[in-house]
Amino acid sequence: MSYAEFLQSLTNGLTRGAIYALIALGYTMVYGILGMINFAHGEIYMIGAYVGVLALAAANALGWSAVSLGGCLALAFLLAMAWAAAHGMTNERLAYRPLRHAPVLSPLISAIGMSIFLQNYVMVLQGKDKRDFPSSFLDVLGTASLSVTELIYLAATTWALPTFLLLAVADYALLAGSTRNRFAHLLRPAPGAPAGTRPPFALGYRAGLACVALSFSAILVYAVRILAENRVHIPLLSSLRATPLQYFIIGTSVVLMVVLHLFVMKTRMGKAMRAVSMDKKMAGMVGIDIDRVISGTFLIGSSLAAAAGIMISMYLSVIKFDSGYFAGLKAFTAAVLGGIGNIPGAMLGGVLLGLAEDFTAARWSDWKDVVAFAILMLVLILKPRGLLGERVAEKV
Amino acid sequence: MPRSLSFALTALAVVLLAALAVLPLTPARAGDDVIKIGVAGPLTGGQAKMGNDVLHGVQLAVKEWNAKGGVLGKKIEVISRDDEAQEKQATPCARELVNEGAVGVIGHFNSGCTIPASEVYYENMVPMITPSATNPKVTDRAYENVFRVCGRDDQQGGVAARFTVETLKAKKVAILHDKTAYGQGLADEFKKGIINALGEAAVVYYAGFSKDEVDFRAILTATKEKAPDMWFFGGIYNQAGPMVKQARQIGLTAPFMSGDGVIDQEFLKTADKDAEGSYLTFGPDPERLPGAKAFLAAYHADYGDHGPYSIYAYDAANILLTAITNAKSADGKKVCDALHAIEYEGAIGKTQFDKKGDIVGSYYVLWIVKDGKFVLYENK
Which candidate among A265, B127, B206, B242 keeps its CA 20 to 30 Å from the CA of B164? Predict the structure, then answer.
């Protein structure tokens, strides 16, 4: 394998892995909370892809695509995610909730039944033929491949302002996170002060952080601009090339995963989800509405799968009613590889599986799927908790 | 329950059961007054477009014959079976057609289906004419009931290889295929032609994948790595579309060439701009054939745009019905003899069969995708 082929396999593998990771999150979150494998999840992903493709075809027919290709694409993503989320929540309500206290195999069988039902339902409504992704929407991203260096330079010159703002926000978040404990006394009202009193230095502390973050990001953007003007060659990054579509897929996946992470770690709902996954009964006793948390889990998992679905239909340019089956199995493998029930594990598992598959397929195309499922078996035998898993997958 | 009511109900049940038992027989009796022609091919699934092109071609021919009074004084009926382009479905479809009393079959569409199905037709001595199965093995077994109105992959692969060497002046060639009888057969014939002209080393890459695969990036990356001057695919349009699109995305810019399985509007629809400049081997252009004018007008009126194989199916059906007329019988053996003797002037031109059931004469020419259309390649 030459260096160029290695790098190409790396980008292909990362792209595929990002998509597996997005689907795997749905499996792992549901497992974490309900302790069941939602085998209909692959179908939700396929339905998301269909809704996206149909919405874009409709946008073409209505002439909206002439107004803004990017806007149509964004709308299609939102619509597909909303539609798939509705499907996912309905599935849970109809097929899993009535079986919540049944023996563990019952919801599993119900999920398999749901998967077969959804696949056939799409086949009846949409036909057995493939559907094409409307290719005019791919052109909005451009087709010429870019090296990572070129992408970074582009970000620092053409898109300097958004890059600057994004970096500033990220810097601020990092700084605030890493210094919170050290300056905790400044952020809390003095002991014994009446309720509602402003903490003494909170505003100044925040303003200071913001200044540091803004100047950091300004320096960074400016430095990269200088590199860009001199066309400095960065060894690895200059030869690592990908198409704009691949950057789009990897970028969108990363953004969605960061948002998910923040949601789970920072919000009330996220905290409730973590509590339910630790101990459902106890969480119910302290007043958490378990049904709502479970619905929310299905909502999030399904909309992530729908985003993955649209992106795969862009990437492969076709979608079929049975596309979800295999992708679902692969993502499940990724979830097990990373440790089922563990969110960062699903991300890691997805990327590793994507890379393993693409590096195999580059040499021995027939062995791609064999490798994926061999990994599943080896993980189950040697490390049933997965790479990052905490709990043993004893339920299935 | 009063006695009379229960008696009435029992009587009703008996009558209904009896009706059920009699009903299936009724169409069979009526069937004596019609001559049945079978059509088999992929009517659903990824290759449904081409299967239905064939069905429509046959239906048009039969409609015209029926308007003239049918054949042997009987009306003609078309019965169709969907083999889903699955080899394992082909034999059951063939059995059903034979059991339903088809006196001849137009099909199957895929070589992989035609070869096992032809065994069934051979056992029952039912003449079959495939409009599209190009694998040499279809006729090389020299079954006297098997015919085709298209060319053979050894001719097709040879034409493609000669064009690659002489016109494209390629020195390094990559070959991909879908592992089916048709796809791999065509790829192998092409490979043979290249090796004969340029030697073993000219084939820098040769690989196959499942006919249901949709992600070709890895194999295309490996292809690109070998830096071929052109790449060839033995397979069907439903894979060629996404494949060409993905190839251009990863930067494989060498010319793409494929065979008759790819020459369909669906290929252009999926691959869109990326299809531009693709080379394909296929038969002559119906639009330019003087004999095809009437066929095209009638077909467009009934079914819209013609597919690549509509005209071959139409001629195949006409040839079968003419042979039945010539034989003055629907008996399989006699019709096969009549087919071997036939000289038919049809929409595609004159058709004659050799001993094996192949057409006499040449067939393949080069096509290219230009401005989003398939046009005949003209060397300038």
Answer: B242
Kindly tell me if the per-residue pLDDT of B183 is higher than 50. Answer: yes
**Nearest of A87, A69, A61 to residue A314 by alpha carbon:** A69
Domain that holds residue A43: 18-143+244-336
Which residue numbers of B have CB closer than 8 Å to A's CBs? Answer: 44-46, 48-49, 207-209, 214-215, 217-219, 221-222, 224-225, 238, 241-242, 245-246, 248-251, 269-270, 272-273
**Whether the predicted pLDDT of A95 surpasses 60:** yes
Q: Do B48 and A128 touch (CB under 8 A)?
A: yes
Same domain as A50, residue A64? yes
* A31 and A59 fall within a common domain: yes
Q: What residue has token string 């009796």?
A: B29
Domain boundary among A336, A356, A386: A336
**In angstroms, what separates the C-alpha of B211 from chain A's closest C-alpha?**
12
Residue B282 to residue A381: CA distance in whole angstroms: 53
Determine which of A155-159, B156-160, B161-165, B343-347 has the lowest per-residue pLDDT on average: A155-159
ipTM of the complex: 0.74
Number of domains in chain A: 2
Domain B34-150+309-347 grouped into CATH 3.80.10.10? no
Does B34-150+309-347 match B154-284+365-376 in CATH topology?
yes
Which tokens sit at B42? 């992929």
Does the distance separating the beta carbons of B224 and A143 come in below 8 Å? no
Residue A273 lies in a domain: yes
Residue A326 included in any domain: yes
The verdict on A38 and A177 lying in the same domain is no
Which residue in chain B has the smallest CA separation from A133?
B270
Q: Which of B45, B49, B218 sits opposite A361 (nearest CB)?
A: B218
End position of a domain, from candidates A313, A336, A359: A336
The burial class, CB within 10 Å (0-12 / 13-18 / 19+), for B268 is buried
Reported as a single tens digit per residue, the pLDDT across A256-315 is: 999 999 899 889 999 999 999 888 889 999 999 999 999 999 999 999 999 999 999 999
Q: Give the C-alpha separation, A84 to A100, whole Å.
A: 22
CB contact under 8 A, A145 and B251: yes
pLDDT at position A392:
47
Q: A147: which chain B residues are within 8 Å (Cβ-Cβ)?
A: none
Q: Do B270 and A317 touch (CB under 8 A)?
A: yes
Residue in chain A lying closest to B46 (CA): A129
pLDDT at A380: 86
Q: What is the DSSP string of A283-341?
A: HHHTT--HHHHHHHHHHHHHHHHHHHHHHHHHHHSEE-TTHHHHHHHHHHHHHHHH-TT
| Structural domain boundaries in chain B | 34-150+309-347, 154-284+365-376
Å from B315 to nearest chain A CA? 28
CATH number of B154-284+365-376: 3.40.50.2300
Asked if residue A117 and residue A61 are part of one domain, the reply reads: yes
Chain mean pLDDT for chain B: 89
Residue A35 in domain: yes
User: Could you say which of A16, A243, A365 has the minimum Cβ distance to residue B249?
Assistant: A243
End-to-end Cα, chain B, rounded Å: 92
In three-state secondary structure terms, B363 is coil
